Amino acid sequence: MNTSPLPKQFALDISHSPKASLENFLPGKDLALLSALQDIEKSWRKGNSQSSENPLNQRWIYWWGPEGSGRTHLLDAIGNAAEHTGLECIALTPFEPASWVRLEEKMRAISESATPSVITVDDVDRLDDRLVGSLFRILNGVQASKAVYIFMAGDAAPANLKLREDLRTRLGWGLIFQTQLLDDDEKIQAIEEAAKARGLVLSPDVLPWLLSRFYRDMPSLMALIDALDAYSLETKRAVTLPLVRELLQPK
After folding, report:
1. Average per-residue pLDDT in the chain?
2. What are the sequence ranges of the domains in the chain?
3. Are 161 and 71 a contacting pair, CB within 8 Å?
4. Predicted model pTM
């Protein structure tokens, strides 16, 4: 299998790529999670999120699964949905500690407000001790609120995370889902839909060849679709197997 990076001269320009959305997520076996998120998105569009009846398990969701199973896509998608309906969305990752500090500074105001807001937390399994403490305090604020939504993702079920016990317990207070990797047929369907969204036509032999010789994880395959899109435009050629081989040929 070819697992070398894409040639440097074809550095990806993904500014034209479609934003992550619930509509362009292929659920595979994750229909229950997708349905729950779609219901929340619909409630935001209808304005029901400001109702006094807003139970915690409809505002607090954690999902887990292997890398490449769509964890981050879904976080980005629900965050984009929130912003599209005019809600404030704060995205937290282990790699941007300053955003955690800023959120904690205004957490009390957010939790006391009747105006809905959304928090997403990616890679919960990679939080250091300081951010574990921060997430613990943030979750306490979400619990005390009536309008704050929090969506979190990690690589293991709460009970199996190597985090302090009181945080693991809190992660399980809401709904919990497991994300699954797509099989080859589902991957082909997802890539075909991504190509279609870009107006890109792939010859029938391209995707089976890529799955047998290229990276098999979805982020790498989607990145390759972006590279093929750019290269096809640059060379003014259709995306055929010879063009794919040419793109991936070491220079």
Report:
1. 87
2. 31-178, 182-248
3. no
4. 0.79
Alpha-carbon gap, residue 103 to 238, rounded angstroms: 47
Task: Tell the CATH topology of 31-178.
Answer: Rossmann fold (3.40.50)
CA separation for the pair 218, 108 (Å, rounded): 38
4 pLDDT more than 70? no
Instruction: Give me the helices (H) in the chain, please.
Output: 31-46, 71-84, 97-112, 129-144, 165-171, 184-197, 206-213, 218-235, 241-248
* pLDDT at residue number 13: 44
Round to whole Å and give the CA distance between 165 and 174: 16
Alpha-carbon torsion angle 152, 158, 162, 165, nearest 10: 110
For 217, the 3-state DSSP assignment is coil
Could you please report the per-residue DSSP string of 171-204? HTTSEEEE-----HHHHHHHHHHHHHHTT--B-T
State CA 155 to chain mean position distance: 13
Cα distance from N-terminal residue to C-terminal residue, the chain: 18
**Does CATH number 3.40.800.10 belong to domain 182-248?**
no
pLDDT at res. 250 = 65
Q: How many CB atoms lie within 10 A of CB 132?
A: 15
